[in-house]
Design brief:
With 74 residues, this protein is an alpha+beta fold. It has a single domain, classed as 434 Repressor (Amino-terminal Domain), CATH 1.10.260.40. Helix content is 47%, strand content 16%. The chain has 4 helices and 3 strands, in the order ββααααβ. α2 crosses α3. The termini are close together.
Amino acid sequence: MYLRGGYMIRLCLDKALTDRGVSRYELAKRTGIQYQIIDNYYKNRVKRYDGFVLDRICVALDCDLSDVITFTKE
């Protein structure tokens, strides 16, 4: 997702899952969120980020939001 001024919000759920040895399927089971939604976050196909989903992901992975989302200048 691009923001004004050349900044970009990018999901890095793939890295968070790999670092913790958790699959997308396992994350879906832990969070109670449909696999397809987890897959969309994993593949950066999300246009609007749902705070509830991000919260459940962070709780399930025992991580901070900064482990799942990066904010960088492109």
